Amino acid sequence: MKKLLSYLLVLVMVTALTACSSGKGAKETETAGNAGSTKDEKTADTDVTASGDNNTLTVWCWDPAFNIYAMQEAEKVYQKTKPDFKLNIIETPWDDVQTKLTTAASSGDLSTLPDIFLMQDNAFQKNYANFPEVFTDLTGKGIAFDSFAPAKVAYSVIDGKNYGVPFDNGTGINCLRTDVLEQAGYTIDDFKDITWDKYTELGKDILAKTKKPLLSVQAGSPDLITEMLQSCGQSLFKEDGSPNIVGNQALIEAINVYTTLVKEGILIEVNDWDQYIGTFTNGTVAGTINGCWILASIQTAADQSGKWALTSVPKLNDIPGATNYTNNGGSSWAISSNCKKTDLAVDFLSKTFAGSVELYETILPSSGALATYLPAGDSDVYATPSEFFGGQKIYTDITEFAGKVPSNNTGVYYYEARDAVGTAITNVVNGADLESELKNAEDTVKFQMGQ
Question: Which residues of the chain have pLDDT under 50?
Answer without folding.
Answer: 1-48
